[in-house]
Queue: 2 jobs
Job 1
Amino acid sequence: MSPALPSFDEAAVLIDGYATRLGQLRPPVERVSLDLAAGRVLAQPLRADQDQPPFDRSTRDGYACRATEASAHSPLQIIGATRAGDAPAGPVPPGAAWEIMTGAPVPAGADAVVMLEHVQVSRGKAFETRVQLLPPRKLKPGENVVAKGAQARMGDELLAVGTAIRPAQIALAAACGYSQLEVFVRPRVAILATGDELVPVETLPAPGQIRNSNAPMLAAMVAAAGGEPWVLPTVADDDESLDRALAQAADADLLILSGGVSAGKFDLVEPALARMGAQFHLTGVRIQPGKPLVFCELPVRNARTAKNENGTKCFGLPGNPVSSAVTFLLFAAPVLAALAGRHKFAPRYALARLSVDAEKQAKPGLTRFLPAFCTFSGAPGQIPEVALVSSQGSGDLAALARSNCFLVVPERSSILEAGATVRILLT
Ligand code: AMP
Ligand code: MG
């Protein structure tokens, strides 16, 4: 192993810094309707178009009144009712109460709502309807009321540019009256699988051949990370084919190659990138799997987008499926997120308790990422439990597909006995 190779931590810092710088450039913007906005990135700040809630809102079915007047001893006369959707009513005079439903505006004069379940309703002498607290209940001013503007003031910025749009953000946009949103144009990500042994998924592999599973996996990972996948035909392991394919793929904002980056006789990707004038940022990282990973930038070809002013970003991922998956998550995803205009994106880690011994997995000098399964039971006082998935190595796709995270084995020897607290990379 070359001692010159950066450690995992060093490579992660390099990628993080690179992605942060890249994130300062703004991709082009387009408008999409709200129902197509999931998975996109906000290119405009989302603002409240009115106070939220727009009126003092009851959070309960019950009776609105002056909190100081609510008691178990002197009943309040019920003089009106407001349903959700009714305009604000009132005023409620002293000594009176007002029936109210969840989501309805609290009438003027009232400052609290007592829950239906906490009162007794009765008839008075003049057959008026009266309400009184059931002991030992009490009512505090403001109870069961969200004041107008308590969640947001009209004009407040509720979501910043660069926010990833998920269901909650869509709901908020709808609540604020946005039927369309300005989002960043998705970066176009070319996916180029290399290898003489590869056949398309529809083809029955001849002896010695395998199906190209990396391209569809990487396309799915690209889409999940906010890119627009552009899967190119498989490339044979010869210089001419590689040069041709690279010239075509360099039109993309980001190029993801799989295979051909190890030290074998037919691992021709790095020299092909060098022939194109690539500027290399990483040509290996002390991780396992994924050590031969390449990260570089190609000279400007087709500066379609502002992001590409420094040339197409390019990753050469090792071809083993687990290696491709891990290196994409660790290194390509943050760069892709930055190209997509996302702010504050980083691989997600968590702590978990190792449920089965993994002591034999440590390899000095290498940070390892091993397919594992974590159970997030949420049991009180318990951190998640993680165990390795049994695997035949970095070509074992079935093991990868049975996993839901990677166990991180640090490069310096550490305790990996059952019961130890360990770091996991979430997928
Ligand atoms: P390489 O990185 O080219 O040396 O490939 C390493 C291993 O990954 C070999 O066993 C390849 O057959 C396998 N491999 C390479 N590319 C793919 C791919 N696109 N899909 C599935 N397996 C692949
Ligand atoms: Mg190969």
Note: The chain has a mean pLDDT of 94.
Job 2
Amino acid sequence: MRQYELIDSVLSYKPESDQEVLKKAYVYGTKMHGRQLRASGDPYFSHPIEVARILAELKLDTTTLVCALLHDTIEDTSATIKDIESNFGSEVAKLVDGVTKLTLLEGNLESSKQAENFRKLLLASASDIRILLIKLADRLHNMRTLNFIKDQNKRKRISLETLDIYAPLAGRIGMHEIKEELEDLSFSHIEPRIRDIITERLKVSKRKKSKTVVLIEKELNKVFYDNKTECSVTGRLKKPYSVWKKLEIQQKSLDQLSDIFGFRVCVNSISECYNSLGILHGKWQAIPGRFKDYISTPKKNGYQSLHTTLIGPKNQRVEVQIRTHKMNEMCEKGLAVHWAYKDKNDAGNDYLASIEWINDLVDILNRDGATEEFLENTKLELFNDQIYAFTPKGTLVALPRDATALDFAYAVHTDLGNFCSSVKINGADKRRRTKLQNGDEVEIIKSKTPVALESLQEFVKTGKAKSAIIRSLKEKETHNQRLIGKAIIKSIFSSHRKKPTRDILERSFGPLGVSSLVKLYGLVGEGLASGSQVYDLVFPNNKRKKRIKNYIEDNISIPVTGLYSDLPAKFSNNSFLVPGDKIVGIIIPESGITIYYVGSDELLEYENSPESWVKLDWKKEIEFTFIARIIVTLINEVGVLNSITSTIADYGGNISNLILNEKDNDFYNLIIDINVNDNKHINAIVESLDGLPVIESVKRFIG
Ligand code: MN
């Protein structure tokens, strides 16, 4: 196609078009592509010209055609976006940039499963619908010239991609003519033999039925002529690909397909459509249930037509579509036509017209059930709630907006998330919490062991990643609790010079309601049972070795001075007082004297009744040991229990109980009850524990 042909064709539908800019783009493109050749041996620039011609047939605006002429200059020549912008302005530069970006997104798609995602990616990436149209025209011309490519696998791959992505995309925006051509060209490269067979069979059935077809066409024309209705009637042979799809889906033989031939009646107005329908139904019997009115209720993609099936001459089934000429053009060329019609009434205002057109498109896509999609200025943010990112192998992963690289890892595989130590995005090292952009390529770097996920919980967006992290943290916690439980049991038993063998421990299963050692460890580790409880259960007659000297409230008088002999006395509940701790008594007339630690919060209650207070002190000589309680916060490492218990043993303390109290991610709080002589004794133990590097903090709990 020569320069003037393109310009003539544009002027034919849009006389006021800017010829100069088209000429300039033509010259620029010719110069930039220079001596480059196509696989066909043609000069490379023949391709952009043909793309522009396809778009001119759709009656698109000058800007689109200029972009079509320039669409491969960024990728294939030395031209830059800046050059394009300074020569042709920012709108053209934006569109050419958009087309180039879409081209870069194309790749080896692994399977058709990804096709829907890729189509959405294309829609989301095309900031202007014209970018998509140029891309479709580009693909159409490449498909028309695909036979020049020698490599059969490459032809098949490109054809599959066309079938999976571009043909449905064309259908989605109503360009059925382009859709059918793309499908059929792809089919001829993917299944050349099947296509040949079907084409041959179609020819045969056409010959067989051609008399009937001609007859029916004549009959229809006559009926309309008699009724003075101006219309065009055409018999139409289906394309091999759509026949093949029907054969595959309906599992029918070619002869069984009644709708290889259809008739199309085109009239001038909608009222004539319904008139024509009445005429046909009056003349021939209609098959019940086959009538569809897509004029009053258009299809989601905007398709409008009346469909009916009649028992025609010679008892042949005849499928008839009735529509206006405009509807017919709309059906074949899509919204481009709609826009062209609008443009005629709104000459000179390309910009507004194209926005309206995009609005129409968005309307139609919205009707397709995508309500969350919306339009912002001229930007097509159709799938703005989703982003699409690639694996290094080209698998496309759909994620919600604001999803991070870690979400991506979990979306590919749960294990990939659990072992994800770092990521590369488009080849650069990034943090796992990095939010992804459309088209990012994400490579997950795996560690050999599961990674710490605690700090990342808030940086994932997808439910899959969230629940996987929670599960993984829970598993880790359970695992740690079991190790802790095992260590607690071991400490208690060894302080009584016993070994916690499986046989012995099994005796506690029944009373504690567990069924395995692992569960027993878990129970103790979680703090639901204490180590001494387990010990008492397995040695019920051989009570824990308690030193004779141990203070037991029941049968030894309290070694405190200042008490009244006629009043009962006791230590306050939940107190762990040892000799040397500062104490005070509170007299309650009915129940006697209760001994408190002077720092106890419970004393606040008696602040205003000084008559209740009794001064108390420990006796000088005490023969018993007392239980002191300490709370140790330790770093989440199970091995540390050994150094704690041996330190306590070194100071002559005897652990009577160990309870895991509460924990957060990195620390455990351990309650340890120790038999000691007095507060100097326990203070020495606390000080030496405090010196251990594995211990975060240690403090006494007195009461
Ligand atoms: Mn191209």
Note: The pocket of manganese (II) ion is lined by residues 47, 71-72, 138 (CB under 6 Å).
